[in-house]
Specification:
This protein has two helices and six strands; from the N terminus they run E-H-E-E-H-E-E-E. It is of the alpha+beta class. The chain has a single domain, classed as RRM (RNA recognition motif) domain (Alpha-Beta Plaits). Strands 2-3-1-6 form a four-stranded antiparallel sheet. The chain has a two-stranded antiparallel sheet with strand order 4-5. The chain is globular.
Length: about 100
């Protein structure tokens, strides 16, 4: 069964193919993608790699977690499902304000 890995701490110039090539040293890579910022089009410095087996995924974690890659230290672990985003815009609660006038 394929296992998806989170890879953080990537140099911003890293490409999808460079990421795939690096993780291929641990086994067969199904996919490798660098996450890009929608506004600037630049890398966010992290990505995801999908290994074809759990064993290869564990080997990739052992091989790359805490190791130097292009002058930066990588964080590699099993990817977790994305958590729902919280809305910090406020709203709800409070009362009405009538500018100190009478009700």
């Amino acid at each position: 069964m394929a296992k998806k890995l989170y890879v953080g701490g990537l140099p911003y110039a890293t490409t999808d193919s460079e990421l795939k090539d690096a993780f291929s040293q641990a086994g067969s890579v199904s996919s490798a993608v660098i996450i890009m910022d929608k506004m600037s089009g630049r890398s966010k410095g992290f990505g995801f790699v999908e290994m074809t087996s759990d064993e290869e995924a564990m080997k990739a974690i052992d091989m790359w977690n805490g190791k130097d890659f292009g002058g930066r230290t990588l964080t590699v672990n099993e990817a977790r499902p994305m958590e729902p985003r919280r809305d910090f815009r406020g709203g709800g609660g409070g009362g009405r304000s009538n500018g100190g006038g009478r009700w």
